[in-house]
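debug: dumping io for the single-chain case to check the tokenizer round-trip. Nothing else runs in this session.
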Amino acid sequence: MPVLTRGQRQAVRRLLVHVALVVIISVISLPSVWMISTSIKPDAEIQVRVPRLIPATPTFVHYYHVLFETAVPRYLLNSFLVASGTAGLAVLLTSLAAYALSRFTFRAKSIYILFILTSQMFPSALFLTPLFIVLKNYHLINSRIGLMVAYATFAVPFCTWLLKGYFDSIPVELEEAALTEGANRVQALWHVTIPLAAPGMAATLLFAFLLSWQEFLFAFTYIQSDQFRTLPPGINVLYASGLGVDFGNMMVMSVVTTVPVVLLFAFLQRYIVQGLTAGAVKG
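debug: decoded output
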């Protein structure tokens, strides 16, 4: 049996790694591929005993129905407004809180950080009724603003912890140099720290955006009017209730819900990876 050289062993190892990655990616991607395939199948091909991955007669009738004959465009707009508002609110609040936790020392700081992490242990359904009472008292039920506030209660704690770790990775000497040159604390934060923390803030923004984009329970409970309904409960109301499930149209709505998130990840992937890894190294 011939003995492989070191270069050949490395080539075989790389080949096996690539084959394993292809297999893993194929398995992970199969549900998404099946979703897209089902969305372009006619009803007769969807409801068969042995379904096929590639449709025999592809059609876009489900896309036309969902995008032009239903309220899905309004649901899409509502989801975008709520997710964008939640992400902006989370970044605004967490950037200031995380900076304070990273740069200043005050009494019970460690307890406060522990409380932030502990708050993530409770399931969101536990806060459904208390938040409903609070939002109702402030007349925020059935409104996009109320939904943003509800989502922010879960996005802010984790985003604060995440962004604090990123601020910890930025050398404080850079701010001290700016203060020495005559800048005040706000100027040093705005012109020095914030630009360097942009990847971490991008990761924070995306986490808050995705949290509110895909959330179902709060949107289904707090939004009672079709005018302000978002995409996840819209799928349930339109195609997953009653006596049956309209799989073709429901898969189209799933595609409509997934594509913006995929594009956002593809556009900001570099910032996500850089922000999450840098924020997890120190602190």
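debug: round-trip ok. The chain has two domains: 6-59, 62-281.
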